[in-house]
Write a structure and sequence with these properties.
Rossmann fold, five-stranded parallel beta sheet, 12 helices, 14 strands, 43% helix
Length: 383
């Protein structure tokens, strides 16, 4: 019940902003579906805070094209069924001009069919490649895809002379898509996947899978292609319990302080690809991501008295892409806005620099992924 009260309050807040802005012209209506509570609430909550903070700043600056933004947010409670329901509500009842969110791949994928049928631009914060491959007319995404993540991990392994690995993949959509990308690309990097296992995102004991992988010969590294949530911490703790001493890699889904907090000491040394936004202080002064990243962390800390989450950058970029598109479309006509988003060029975001095309609705490149490692309970830039 508490979560649904929160939905109502957030929706009311958005409508209140719209009512105040009506005197200055019809507001721009932005709707977001985020997993503020539930298993991935630690991702969705900072996304909600980020979106509200950035919309507040835009409205204080006069809005967009002289129109204020009316923001409506619904909490899907990490449930894809709720995400689909709220997508319909935002389009049919709230009459939004653009959809944002879908905190993780399963909830984002639940929004896709309705966005496509209704013809409403949807800028997703889910990571799965399936969101934009094959390209969908009305759907875009801000995080790097699992294909880019897989290739960046394999590239780092190659540079370290790693040739034989074991692959443990989560049975979630992101985990299985990542598995597909790793196994398809490994040979190009001179790497052999000598053994595979899988586990469920809600599993609390993965030691049987690790036991089987431990019997493989001449392993040089372990790749755990996990989704978001608690499963990365479960996996690394079980890995340590089995006495493994090999290098461990995980995707960017595990890049959050919750992973270090829940995983504890075994997280030390885990490597992951991510954006420079995660470690802004380590970026060179000329790096285009440094200034906006530092500004984001500073403003978030000032507003909420807590540190920002890397996942907040995904929704900040989604909003920036939508606003940039609205400006270039000179309004919120949905077809014109869709075309404007698809023609995004050189937009510097927190995840990297976005350049969309009709064949690419993500707009990022593998080159914008950095390698970080957990050291002394912190994420540190390696390269």
């Amino acid at each position: 019940m508490r979560a649904f009260i929160r939905h109502a309050l957030l929706a009311f807040a958005g409508l209140a902003v719209g009512a105040a802005a009506h005197a200055q012209g019809e507001p721009i209506r932005i709707g977001a579906i985020l997993s503020v509570t539930g298993p991935v609430g630690f991702i969705g909550d900072p996304q909600q805070k980020t979106l509200e903070l950035h919309v507040k700043r835009l409205n204080e600056q006069g809005g967009v094209l002289g129109r204020k933004i009316a923001l409506t947010i619904y909490d899907d409670q990490s449930d894809p069924n709720n995400a689909n329901t709220f997508a319909k509500r935002l389009v049919d009842t709230d009459k939004v001009d653009v959809l944002l969110g879908g905190t993780v791949t399963p909830t984002a994928m639940a929004i896709v069919p309705y966005a496509e049928r209704a013809g409403v631009p949807f800028v997703s914060t889910g990571g799965g490649l399936a969101l934009v491959d094959p390209v969908k007319k009305w759907v875009f995404k801000t995080p790097h895809s699992d294909r880019m993540v897989a290739e960046r991990i394999l590239q780092d392994m190659q540079e370290r002379g790693i040739k034989r690995i074991a692959l443990l993949s989560e049975t979630s959509g992101f985990g299985q898509s990542g598995r597909k990308e790793v196994t398809a690309a490994a040979a190009r990097f001179g790497i052999t996947v000598v053994g595979e296992e899988s586990y469920g995102p809600k599993d609390t004991d993965i030691t049987p899978q690790f036991t089987r992988l431990r019997n493989l010969q001449d392993l040089q590294a372990m790749l755990v292609f996990c989704g978001a949530g608690t499963s990365p911490a479960v996996a690394i703790k079980n890995y340590a319990q089995m006495g493994f001493k090999l290098p461990v890699y995980m995707p960017h889904a595990a890049v959050n302080q919750e992973f270090i907090k829940l995983g504890g000491a075994p997280t030390e040394g885990v490597r992951m690809p991510t954006t420079g936004f995660v470690v802004p202080d380590a970026l060179k002064d000329g790096d285009p991501q440094k200034a906006p990243s530092l500004d984001y962390y500073r403003s978030f800390k000032e507003a909420y008295k807590v540190d920002a989450s890397p996942f907040g950058g995904n929704v900040a970029d989604a909003l920036a892409i939508a606003v940039d598109g609205i400006k270039r479309a000179n309004g919120t006509d949905k077809a014109k806005l869709r075309d404007a988003i698809e023609s995004t060029r050189g937009l510097v975001g927190l995840n990297g620099t976005f350049t969309m095309t009709p064949a690419n609705h993500n707009g990022l490149t593998t080159d914008s992924l950095r390698i970080i490692e957990v050291r002394n309970g912190r994420f540190e830039l390696i390269k």
